[in-house]
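Obj: model holo form, ligand = carboxymethyldethia coenzyme *A.
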Amino acid sequence: MILHEKIQSQLPAWRERIKTLAKEHAAVVVDTVTIEEVIGGMRDIKSLLTDISSVDPGEGIRFRGMSINEVLKALPKARGGKMPLVGGLYYLLMVGEAPSKEQAQAVEDEWAKRAVVPDYVFKMLKSMPRDTHPMILLSQAVLALGKDSVFTKKYHEGMKRDVYWEAALEDSLDLTAKLPVIAAYIYRLKYFGESAKPKYNPKQDYGTNFARMMKVSDKKGYADLARLYFIIHSDHESGNASAHAMHLVGSTLSDAYFSFSASLNALAGPLHGLANQESLSWLLEVKEKFGGVPTRDDLYKFAWDTLNDGHVIPGYGHGVLRVIDPRFVTQLEFAKKRFPDNDLLRLAEMVLDVVPSVLKEQGKAKNPAPNVDAISGTLQYYYGVREFDFYTVLFGVGRALGVTANYVWARALAMPIERPKSLTTKMLEDEVAKASHPA
Ligand code: CMX
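Output (holo structure tokens):
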């Protein structure tokens, strides 16, 4: 299988590099930790290793060194679409090189073979109360798939450490292949009461399959939006909550299903992936209150009311980025090309004009610019996916691509179990006393 061969050929050199760093340069200081960082959610402490993607605060995400625009240009396009094959992105994340059309297709073919979801998973989802949040359903389904984890089975059969990554890759391919089927089933079941099992068509790519199984019309290009959406949501280096949760749980040698379920549970928080649903909900609230696109002054006041009520403005701000999120820009360009006159898009553009200045006036947010979540719901809404508590599920399907690539490489490079050191408040106070009265 193509990803297996490519990773295998790269591994000896990577392992040597990690070994050299760990053995010969272990004492080299990369950063020092301040009390602000200890108390402030470990923000920006350089303490995770990944080669899959990195976020420059002044520029945004790079996947294997490539910006979003470079990725969209370099990856082979899906037949009949303007966006790349998602299989090509997975190849890039796993292997570190842009694939040829055949290589991207080989990943798509691999997914097509593995996209069969066992019956018990559908039955379990169907038995849940209809008002269950779709992220609960998705996380449950992922965990349930773990029954067939290749990693766990082989681990208990005595698998050797240097081939953990092969079983991790098997599970990752199985999981990513099944996710669009599960997500589409949850969508049709929860909002339309349909329990027919969606079928993956091996002749179609990941994006087209998803659009068809969701039963969203592809006339206006939903398959292209799905491809773009999964690609840009795939990874955002390793410290964000969903990627870190996957890495942490995976480091205990829990399999990809346990680990990705944890990743989804982190993504489901309103300060992380759930912000896309909150963001659209906020836009719709504005639209309803003012009977359409408001005046700039009304919007300004509404934004201040949100802050004064003690709420954040969803879709704005970022833990690491200090500029406008390029994932926001790419989606905005996609929308402006396809539906420039749409009311909600005009409103999102006005919010872009007004909210950063409100946040600047408030003076708290380090980055008043929009993040990925500020507009993703607007695009889904336009294409007819209007059940916005479903949006984080879409984020989750995309996020699986990045976090599983990280998970495979973490096992390949024998990353140890994570165990940072905690301190007590008294210890911090003692450090402060020492610093104020040096002996
Ligand atoms: N609206 C109001 N206040 C905001 C804000 C926003 N959009 N963004 C930041 N702030 C506030 C913070 O709440 C914080 O206030 P306190 O000091 O009272 O706690 C202060 O500004 C400083 O925060 P920061 O250092 O700039 O940002 P953090 O790293 O603490 O938090 C984030 C980052 C994303 C959680 C925050 O900007 C936020 O809550 N944004 C809105 C929710 C959102 O869009 N989340 C999605 C992020 C992308 C993703 O992960 O999917």
